[in-house]
Design a protein that fits this description.
Blueprint (H helix, E strand, L loop, with lengths): L1 H7 L5 H30 L4 H30 L2 H23 L34 H4 L3 H30 L4 H29 L1 H12 L2 H6 L4 H22 L2 H6 L4 H30 L3 H19 L3 E2 L12 E2 L1
Antiparallel strand pairs: 1-2
Helix pairs in contact: 1-2, 1-4, 2-3, 2-12, 3-4, 3-7, 3-10, 6-7, 6-10, 6-12, 6-13, 7-8, 7-10, 8-10, 8-13
């Protein structure tokens, strides 16, 4: 990703923008983001939701401050190419070097236990959480939860990607200038950081699944608020309300696969459904833009987004945590909540 960002600083043709931006965006949304949260989920079990919420704060903070950082570099140097180089430097210093030096896949790889638990003298004294059930990909795809959780996250990515992409053009269409609209997005991102912490706090007390259901239902009111927004004050109400529950939902989305299917095959289980989710994430903004260009109105897309979020909540509601069968030949999996 750092190389793709550096390459963007040397653009001379439109195809180069499409190529290198697509590479960087694809890596950041799949490999980079996923690996970070998979590592967290491997190192924590009881505290998993809390730590995922803390990590999500960094994501939201980056969304809020990196544009300011790039704008500052541009204003000082007067060259947009230096903005891309500045981002490449951040990716290298914080995204490449520290993980290469310090990250290990699982605590067991270096003789430790999840959550910092002490190593007991006997295996019989292992904390119960360490032996959480872990599914293989083959086992996971035979559960109802695998498909419904994947669909729920896909609907979330379709909706979240569309609103995040179109909220600034929509606010400008409503008569706000570029600076107030950008301030709304900054507030949305900062509040989202607190939302991640809120999601982690709730998940420890009511499970990740229930926290996501609650957050998705609350999020479904966000598009309605945005559709009614025609003043800066109303835009701020939207940014705070929607940003809070968006942050909680996105953070818990990173922990939910580990809660359902355990740690051992987490990366491959999560990654196996991600192509569908990424297609939805990419298609949402495009389809929304095509509709608005033809109709001149965001009203229908906003209603559709609210419906998608409610459908995502319903999918999780009907996907209780699976239990592995007692025998390898079991034809179905029991469920528990």
């Amino acid at each position: 990703m750092a190389l793709a960002l550096a390459a963007l600083s040397g653009l001379h043709s439109l195809w180069q923008l499409y190529l290198f931006y697509a590479i960087g965006r694809g890596l950041s949304m799949t490999a980079v983001s996923n690996v970070g949260f998979v590592v967290v989920s491997n190192w924590f079990i009881r505290r998993r939701a809390t730590v995922v919420g803390i990590v999500a704060v960094a994501q939201r903070a980056g969304m809020a401050f990196l544009p300011v950082y790039v704008a500052l570099v541009f204003s000082i140097t007067g060259d947009w190419r230096n903005g891309w180089l500045a981002l490449a430097l951040v990716a290298l210093l914080f995204g490449v070097i520290p993980p290469a030096l310090f990250i290990r896949r699982r605590p067991e790889d270096i003789g430790l236990l999840p959550d910092g638990d002490p190593i007991p003298d006997s295996l019989d004294d292992l904390p119960l959480d360490v032996s959480e059930e872990s599914f293989t990909l083959r086992e996971a795809v035979h559960t109802r939860a695998y498909w419904l959780v994947g669909i729920a996250i896909g609907l979330l990515m379709l909706t979240g990607g569309s609103i995040n992409f179109h909220q600034v053009p929509y606010l400008i269409d409503q008569g706000m200038g570029g600076t107030p609209a950008a301030l709304v997005v900054t507030v949305f991102s900062l509040v989202g950081a607190f939302g991640g912490l809120l999601g982690g706090y709730l998940a420890v007390r009511m499970t990740t699944r229930r926290t996501m259901i609650l957050s998705l239902v609350a999020m479904s009111f966000g598009p309605f608020l945005l559709a009614q927004t025609d003043t800066f004050a109303m835009a701020m109400v939207y940014a705070v309300f929607y940003g809070l529950f968006f942050g909680a939902t996105v953070a818990m989305n990173q922990a939910i696969y580990a809660d359902y299917f355990g740690r051992l095959s987490l990366g491959v289980i999560r990654g196996s459904f991600q192509p569908v989710q990424m297609v939805l994430n990419a298609a949402g903004p495009l389809l929304t833009g095509l509709w608005v260009d033809q109709s001149g109105s965001y009203t229908l897309p906003f209603f559709v987004f609210s419906g998608c979020l409610l459908l995502a909540a319903a999918a999780l509601l009907f996907s209780p945590y699976p239990t592995k069968p007692a025998t390898a030949t079991g034809s179905s999996l029991a469920s528990h909540d």
